[in-house]
């Protein structure tokens, strides 16, 4: 029935103030106001319609994206939206586009690695979109191994230029989003060669296309790399291929904050660490963690609403059947994902703070927290994107058969999201970076250098190697100190075990390769500890609103105990908890699911997603699923005609043949 809220009774069961929870989710009252206003603006604009994406051809899809991005830019300028509002608008338009890379990587790369003069020259053009840029680092032959990039930038002292060249097929730039068909400029990464000497990989601004007719400039070959996973999905993006044939750029187009090349061709290293060349990746990894909570919460919102609408079995005396959300198995799959969405939100907030802090320190030439910022952004990007990709797929299964329909919104969400496990650093490669950081931390424990920040707990390693979990009753698992100690002990013991195993190898690098699977598990344990501890820290804040803090406490405990249950092997093997304590944790978890149940719909309402953004018949706010699913099916282009195209050509002759055979 149109206009009826089928989930009203669910909403009336909520034991907390949903409006206040919306503020917590958004981060502040101001952020909620902006987000709410902009999401409605997008939802009410027919130009941002997105329900036809899966039936468009690649060319139509791409042109449609160009139209939407142009319209979005028009609205941003007409309404004089602030940077915050404009970024929310792009978010709610919900279509991967070249603008993500222009605003998300090209501009940050110039900001982070350019000199003051370079910022003055390039940023105004980029901010007004008078140039459009992308981030061209990865090549056909190398992505993870940035030091293995082959593109060269050779300094020519005669002309005061760099000659950018792709010496091999594998040196072709491959993957950069926005490169294939749109970008006029790119920040490219190439080996700096002066007088035959290789100074490693640096960033350069290169113009790719003519500002008059958009044709590639001389010496440049550029195009799209082809269709990607899923229909619609990430195919709105023109991931590209790019080759240079001795393309000349002025010397001042090398990004020179980290190192400089003088007019005489002298290489000068600033007093900033070389790793700052990788700075844009640190920035983007941090935004990807925040984005993980958005993608996961979206899938969870769909699966939770649908689980409350869907009924199967359990009818007594002809009464209504059981809502599938009331099955404990459904709860044990769904509620940890709901809790994870909140956990990732808060760790994302914290990571943003850490990033801002490290940026301010870098400006004051304090580089001391850079290794930790790198380890945290790399590790949390890996942890949250892997969990989110798996979580979206689990939500699809939680919706049964209907979850497999594009109209559920889940297949496209999954297809758009999964590459997050690969881009901005393959998730395993990033965990190995965390593992290196942990092994370094452990190796320095006796040296008097006290671990700080997220590894501060390692400073109590002696105690953590000995401690015994104090849990005697299931309720003991609700104490934050008990949870923290278990996670700290598990992480410390796994790292120490790896460090000890490494000493069995004469060559530490060989040992690192041999033990790399164990090392990634230690890294995961450390990253999960960070997420759990940041959730617990969040709960120490003053959180207004009836019942809001209580609900968050329930979710925090679900998140921690679910992880404990999932990684029981780690906790038992390291002797952090006993089998009896593991079973008490499981009892507590079941009880927490029951406490979360009446609040589940309100907890997903707190994400404040419009139906337009969710793009899901199953996740509709009003729960009016069946008539809309039915309606949606008839909109499929296959249903444009009753008898399909191809009947005369293929079906009819086959049927006739069968008829003839039968008569024989
Ligand atoms: C609508 C919502 C929008 C949300 C957000 C939108 C933004 C757009 C988002 C998505 C669109 C997709 C865009 C995708 C873009 C890309 O994929 S760009 C390409 C990204 N590529 C990678 O991530 C490559 C991964 N590889 C690396 O990062 C590195 O090469 C490496 C794996 C770290 C290894 O590097 P290397 O071999 O050079 O280094 P090591 O020898 O291991 O380490 C040397 C020391 O340096 C330290 N280090 C390494 N990296 C960093 C860093 N980034 N910062 C600081 N320090 C770093 C490392 O720890 C070593 O330190 P040590 O010597 O003290 O041990
Ligand atoms: C949708 C999408 C958008 C992208 N956008 C951009 C962009 O805008 N700009 C850009 O420059 N790039 C972009 N990329 C490229 C992306 O950053 C790389 O694909 C990514 O960094 C992974 O590198 P790779 O492809 O070389 O993987 P590989 O490193 O070749 O990975 C292959 C396998 O090898 C494993 N492996 C690799 N090294 C190790 C190791 N040391 N130890 C153990 N296992 C290892 C990995 O775990 C993986 O299983 C994009 C990629 C995708 C999919």
TrEMBL record:
<keyword id="KW-0276">Fatty acid metabolism</keyword>
<dbReference type="Pfam" id="PF22924">
    <property type="entry name" value="ACOX_C_alpha1"/>
</dbReference>
<dbReference type="GO" id="GO:0005777">
    <property type="term" value="C:peroxisome"/>
</dbReference>
<keyword id="KW-0285">Flavoprotein</keyword>
<dbReference type="InterPro" id="IPR012258">
    <property type="entry name" value="Acyl-CoA_oxidase"/>
</dbReference>
<dbReference type="GO" id="GO:0003997">
    <property type="term" value="F:acyl-CoA oxidase activity"/>
</dbReference>
<feature type="domain" description="Acyl-CoA oxidase C-alpha1">
    <location>
        <begin position="278"/>
        <end position="439"/>
    </location>
</feature>
<dbReference type="GO" id="GO:0071949">
    <property type="term" value="F:FAD binding"/>
</dbReference>
<dbReference type="Pfam" id="PF14749">
    <property type="entry name" value="Acyl-CoA_ox_N"/>
</dbReference>
<dbReference type="InterPro" id="IPR037069">
    <property type="entry name" value="AcylCoA_DH/ox_N_sf"/>
</dbReference>
<dbReference type="Pfam" id="PF01756">
    <property type="entry name" value="ACOX"/>
</dbReference>
<feature type="domain" description="Acyl-CoA oxidase C-terminal">
    <location>
        <begin position="480"/>
        <end position="656"/>
    </location>
</feature>
<dbReference type="GO" id="GO:0033540">
    <property type="term" value="P:fatty acid beta-oxidation using acyl-CoA oxidase"/>
</dbReference>
<dbReference type="InterPro" id="IPR046373">
    <property type="entry name" value="Acyl-CoA_Oxase/DH_mid-dom_sf"/>
</dbReference>
<dbReference type="InterPro" id="IPR002655">
    <property type="entry name" value="Acyl-CoA_oxidase_C"/>
</dbReference>
<dbReference type="InterPro" id="IPR029320">
    <property type="entry name" value="Acyl-CoA_ox_N"/>
</dbReference>
<dbReference type="GO" id="GO:0001676">
    <property type="term" value="P:long-chain fatty acid metabolic process"/>
</dbReference>
<feature type="binding site">
    <location>
        <position position="138"/>
    </location>
    <ligand>
        <name>FAD</name>
    </ligand>
</feature>
<keyword id="KW-0576">Peroxisome</keyword>
<feature type="domain" description="Acyl-coenzyme A oxidase N-terminal">
    <location>
        <begin position="17"/>
        <end position="132"/>
    </location>
</feature>
<keyword id="KW-0560">Oxidoreductase</keyword>
<keyword id="KW-0443">Lipid metabolism</keyword>
<dbReference type="InterPro" id="IPR055060">
    <property type="entry name" value="ACOX_C_alpha1"/>
</dbReference>
<protein>
    <recommendedName>
        <fullName>Acyl-coenzyme A oxidase</fullName>
    </recommendedName>
</protein>
<dbReference type="InterPro" id="IPR036250">
    <property type="entry name" value="AcylCo_DH-like_C"/>
</dbReference>
<feature type="active site" description="Proton acceptor">
    <location>
        <position position="424"/>
    </location>
</feature>
<comment type="similarity">
    <text>Belongs to the acyl-CoA oxidase family.</text>
</comment>
<dbReference type="GO" id="GO:0055088">
    <property type="term" value="P:lipid homeostasis"/>
</dbReference>
<dbReference type="InterPro" id="IPR009100">
    <property type="entry name" value="AcylCoA_DH/oxidase_NM_dom_sf"/>
</dbReference>
<dbReference type="GO" id="GO:0005504">
    <property type="term" value="F:fatty acid binding"/>
</dbReference>
<feature type="binding site">
    <location>
        <position position="177"/>
    </location>
    <ligand>
        <name>FAD</name>
    </ligand>
</feature>
<keyword id="KW-0274">FAD</keyword>
């Amino acid at each position: 029935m149109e206009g009826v809220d089928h989930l009203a009774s669910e909403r009336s069961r909520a034991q907390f103030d949903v409006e206040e929870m919306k503020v917590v989710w958004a981060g502040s009252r101001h952020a909620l106001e902006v987000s709410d206003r902009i999401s409605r603006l997008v939802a009410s604009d027919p130009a941002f319609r997105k329900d036809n994406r899966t039936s468009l051809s690649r060319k139509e899809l791409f042109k449609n994206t160009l139209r939407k991005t142009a319209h979005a830019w028009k609205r941003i300028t007409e309404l004089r939206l602030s940077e915050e509002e404009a970024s929310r608008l792009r978010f709610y338009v919900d279509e991967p586009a070249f603008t993500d890379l222009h605003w998300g990587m090209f501009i940050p790369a110039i900001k982070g690695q350019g000199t003051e003069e370079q910022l003055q020259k390039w940023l105004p053009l980029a901010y007004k979109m008078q140039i459009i840029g992308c981030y061209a680092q990865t090549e056909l032959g190398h992505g993870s191994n940035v030091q293995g990039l082959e593109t060269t930038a050779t300094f020519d002292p005669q002309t005061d230029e760099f000659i950018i060249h792709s010496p091999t097929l594998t040196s072709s730039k491959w993957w950069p989003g926005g490169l294939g068909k749109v970008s006029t400029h790119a920040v490219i990464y190439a080996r700096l060669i002066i007088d035959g000497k290789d100074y490693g990989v640096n960033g350069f601004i290169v113009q790719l296309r003519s500002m008059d007719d958009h044709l590639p400039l001389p010496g440049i070959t550029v195009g799209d790399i082809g269709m990607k996973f899923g229909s619609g999905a990430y195919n709105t993006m023109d991931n590209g291929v790019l080759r240079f044939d001795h393309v000349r750029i002025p010397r001042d187009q090398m990004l020179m904050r980290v190192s400089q090349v003088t007019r005489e061709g002298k290489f000068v290293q600033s007093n900033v660490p070389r790793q700052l060349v990788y700075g844009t990746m640190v920035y983007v990894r941090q935004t990807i963690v925040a984005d993980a909570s958005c993608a996961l919460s979206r899938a969870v919102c769909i699966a939770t609403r649908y689980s409350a609408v869907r009924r199967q079995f359990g009818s007594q005396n002809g009464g209504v059947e059981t809502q599938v959300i009331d099955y404990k198995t459904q709860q044990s799959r769904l509620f940890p994902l709901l809790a994870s969405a909140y956990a990732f939100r808060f760790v994302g907030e914290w990571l943003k703070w850490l990033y801002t802090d490290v940026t301010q320190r870098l400006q004051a030439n304090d580089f001391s927290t850079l290794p930790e910022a790198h380890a945290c952004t790399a590790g949390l990007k890996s942890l949250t994107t892997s969990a989110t990709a798996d979580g979206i797929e689990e939500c699809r299964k939680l919706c049964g058969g209907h979850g497999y329909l594009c109209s559920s919104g889940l297949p496209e969400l999954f297809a758009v999201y999964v590459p997050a496990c690969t881009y901005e650093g393959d998730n395993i490669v990033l965990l190995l970076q965390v593992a290196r950081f942990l092994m370094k931390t452990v190796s320095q424990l006796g040296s008097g250098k006290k671990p700080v920040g997220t590894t501060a707990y390692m400073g109590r390693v002696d105690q953590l190697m000995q401690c015994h979990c104090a849990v005697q009753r299931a309720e003991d698992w609700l104490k934050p100190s008990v949870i923290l100690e278990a996670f700290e002990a598990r992480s410390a013991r796994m790292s120490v075990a790896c460090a000890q195993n490494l000493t069995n190898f004469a060559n530490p690098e060989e040992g690192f390769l041999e033990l790399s699977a164990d090392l990634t598990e230690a890294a995961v344990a450390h990253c999960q500890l960070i997420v759990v501890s940041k959730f617990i820290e969040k709960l120490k804040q003053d959180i207004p609103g009836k019942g809001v803090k209580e609900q968050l406490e329930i979710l925090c405990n679900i998140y921690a105990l679910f992880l404990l249950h999932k990684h029981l092997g780690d906790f038992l093997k390291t002797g952090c908890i006993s089998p009896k304590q593991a079973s008490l944790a499981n009892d507590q978890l079941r009880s927490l699911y029951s406490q979360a149940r009446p609040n589940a719909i309100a907890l997903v309402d707190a994400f404040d997603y419009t139906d337009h953004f969710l793009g899901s018949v199953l996740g509709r706010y009003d729960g009016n699923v069946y008539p809309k699913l039915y309606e949606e099916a008839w909109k499929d282009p296959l249903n444009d005609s009753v008898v399909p195209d191809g009947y005369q050509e293929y079906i009819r002759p086959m049927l006739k043949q069968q008829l003839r055979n039968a008569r024989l």
